[in-house]
From TrEMBL:
InterPro entries: AAA+_ATPase, ABC_transporter-like_ATP-bd, P-loop_NTPase. It comes from the Bacteria. CDD domains: ABC_Iron-Siderophores_B12_Hemin. Residues 247-258 have a biased composition (Basic residues). One of its GO terms (molecular function) is ATP hydrolysis activity. Keywords: ATP-binding, Nucleotide-binding, Transport. SUPFAM superfamilies: P-loop containing nucleoside triphosphate hydrolases. Residues 3-235 form the ABC transporter domain. Residues 247-272 are annotated as: Disordered. It holds the Pfam family ABC_tran. Gene3D superfamilies: P-loop containing nucleotide triphosphate hydrolases (3.40.50.300). This is Iron complex transport system ATP-binding protein.
Length: 272
């Protein structure tokens, strides 16, 4: 197994945010982490990235507890793109992507032969070649997101962790990015809100609710109407294409309570 989490919990502010989570991702596999807001996806990703230590349990890479890896060794193999990344310094796109090479540089910071090709490859993969000289502060939200993904790819990791990588991207870039991640020869864990994107691209999905794993397995087995209702309190119809095991989820409008207001927000129809 490339990534294993064994009974990991993490406490913060007197609450157990991640509750005895176990998971396994085989080499080359792509795991989708899904669950409502505040269910613990980002916290779990930070444990896997080694940015936080579990209060109990363990995270293993290739069977080795990450507490036994040096920061540098961990940074060489695990790339993590968090949800909101900003920089105070006004770097160019290429400068930001080049930061991905830092763990591969020698102690005195000299660049290595592989840096240039790795940076070029990452820029091409993220569709940023034409933007390579642009300054970070001039980029749109989606362009910044793609720059951070390129930085992670330039790191040439064996494990890639992405926290909602599609949230600023238009539909074409969402599809391109997840297609790219699913085809790259690396192991990935990707937190996603879009259940249909998770169903389309992930080999397996793991559903968190209140910090606990409530389901895991193939998208076809896990993403059922019952699961979506239990976890999100949303009605849906799940269709299966005849030539694909991957489900497609059609969400239904919020049910109305006895008062006439839907679950989440007042409907536009009420205001019309
Ligand atoms: N350092 C912290 N101290 C206290 N509570 C925290 C801390 N970090 C996270 N939490 C809480 O833990 C819960 C899980 O947060 P987390 O960001 O992991 O969820 P998430 O599933 O990624 O959410 P979202 O989908 O909204 O991004 C939230 O209720 C959050 O407020």
């Amino acid at each position: 197994m490339s990534i294993q989490v064994r009974g990991a919990s993490w406490w913060a502010g007197g609450s157990r945010i991640v509750n005895r989570v176990s998971l396994e991702v085989p080499v080359g596999g792509m795991l989708g982490l899904i669950g409502p807001n505040g269910s613990g996806k980002s916290s779990l990703l930070r444990l896997i990235a080694g940015l936080r230590a579990p209060s109990e349990g363990a995270v293993l890479l290739d069977g080795r507890n990450i507490t036994g890896l040096s920061r540098r060794d961990l940074a060489r193999r695990v790339a993590f793109v968090e949800q909101e990344v900003s920089t105070e310094v006004d770097l160019t796109v290429t400068d930001v992507v080049a930061l991905g090479r830092t763990p591969h540089r020698s102690a005195w910071g000299g660049s290595r032969d592989g840096d240039g090709p790795a940076i070029d490859h990452a820029l091409r993969c993220a569709g940023l070649v034409d933007l390579r000289h642009r300054r970070w502060h001039s980029l749109s939200g989606g362009e910044r997101q793609r720059t951070q993904i390129a930085r992670a790819l330039a790191q040439e990791p064996s494990e890639l962790l992405l926290d909602e990588p599609t949230n600023h991207l238009d539909v074409a870039h969402q599809l391109e990015l997840l297609d790219l991640v699913s085809r790259l020869p690396l192991t990935s864990v990707v937190a996603l809100h879009d259940l249909n994107l998770a169903a389309m691209f992930c080999d397996a999905v793991l559903v968190l609710s209140g910090g606990e794993v409530v389901a895991d397995g193939s998208p076809g087995d896990v993403l059922t109407e019952d699961l979506v209702r239990r976890v999100y309190d949303v009605d849906c119809a799940v269709a299966h294409e005849p030539d694909s095991a991957r489900p497609h989820i059609k969400f239904l409008p919020p049910r109305r309570r006895a008062t006439g207001t839907p679950h989440a927000t007042a409907g536009y129809a009420d205001r019309a």
